[in-house]
Write a structure and sequence with these properties.
- The chain has 306 residues and is an alpha/beta fold.
- The chain is 49% helix and 16% strand.
- It contains 12 helices and 11 strands.
- It has an 8-stranded parallel beta barrel with strand order 1-2-3-4-5-8-10-11, surrounded by 9 helices. A 3-stranded mixed beta sheet has the order 7-6-9, with no helix packed on it.
- Helix 5 links the parallel strand 3 and strand 4.
- The protein is globular and about 60 Å long.
- It starts with a helix and ends in a 7-residue tail after the last helix.
């Protein structure tokens, strides 16, 4: 994060659920000589199991030599964070954004103290993003932007290592009905207030930052899908955020769409196919292509391993 802040780029945090996604993301990072964060939601933990996920990431580190963080995304409670820390995750997020402020502070601090004692860093969230992703569901009426003064107080009192803020991104494939807008003034204010409070180069995180690649959406729909009106964060907005204090940008929906598009295309063009290595291999390749594009043209982390 320190290198990313100073270099004006972000590290991509890509959600993983199975081997092909791990391999596609890591192959892209290796091709671009980029550090990368592989992150796991509570639903992914249930689906793939922590030890399987940890072993796959260990294999990726051993094979590539890349800097790879294994991160818990949206940890709902202390026990889930504890389970991942004990399994060997290098980073966890505790998401207490649905609690009132004081409870969020208290619960986040508890996770921070446990994690720091074991050499693990902690991300937390302040403000509420709209949208749906796995177990995270917030309607637009209950979404709230992050208050800059509260952000400083929160970081001071919890000792958290990075902070996910709400400036207009949202979870899922349907992020905007009209024109996409991110509150860059709020991001700048939060950064300045943290700096003034003594938190030098403090890393900010953007959740719900998939661009919802229209090529993938079109391919899904061409081969029998029904994903109408999906719309994400424009790449130029994410690039601007990456050049500011945003050091970690989360992407999940884009990977899901790429994987689904490739598999639908494989079945659509060859209805007789039933070898998983074929269609899952296509999906892995498409994920690699997508992630390489994100690293080069969106978050700018190419050659961050230098």
């Amino acid at each position: 994060f320190e290198k990313a802040f100073q270099g004006g780029y972000a590290i991509g945090a890509f959600n993983i659920n199975n081997m092909e996604i791990v391999q596609g993301v890591v192959a892209a990072a290796q091709a671009q000589n980029s550090a990368v964060i592989l992150q796991v939601s509570k639903s992914a933990l249930k689906y793939a199991h922590p030890k399987y996920l940890k072993a796959m990431v260990d294999a990726a580190v051993e094979e590539t030599g890349l800097d790879i963080a294994l991160h818990l995304d949206h940890g709902p409670d202390f026990e889930t964070c504890k389970e991942c820390i004990e399994c060997g995750f290098t980073s966890v997020m505790f998401d207490g954004s649905h609690y009132d402020y004081e409870e969020n502070v208290a619960k986040t601090k508890e996770v921070v103290e446990y994690a720091h004692a074991r050499g693990v860093v902690v991300e937390a969230e302040l403000g509420k993003l709209a949208g749906v992703e796995d177990d995270v569901k917030v309607d637009a009426a209950n979404a709230t932007y992050t208050d800059p003064d509260q952000a400083v107080d929160f970081v001071k009192r919890t000792g958290v290592d990075s902070l996910a803020i709400a400036i207009g991104t949202s979870h899922g494939a349907y992020k905007f009905k009209g024109e996409a807008k991110l509150d860059f003034d709020r991001l700048e204010t939060i950064t300045k207030k943290l700096e003034d409070a003594g938190f030098h180069n403090f890393p900010i995180v953007l959740h719900g930052a998939s661009s919802v690649d229209q090529k993938c959406v079109a391919m899904c729909n061409q081969y029998g899908g029904k994903i109408d009106g999906a719309k994400g964060i424009p790449a130029e907005m994410l690039r601007k955020a990456s050049s500011m204090a945003v050091c970690k940008i989360n992407m999940d929906t884009d990977l899901r769409l790429a994987m689904t598009a490739a598999i639908r295309k494989a079945f659509g063009e060859n209805p007789a196919a039933f070898d998983p290595r074929g269609y899952l291999g296509d999906a892995r390749n498409m994920i690699q292509e997508l992630v390489e594009d994100k690293i080069k043209n969106v978050i700018g982390s190419t050659d961050s391993m230098k």
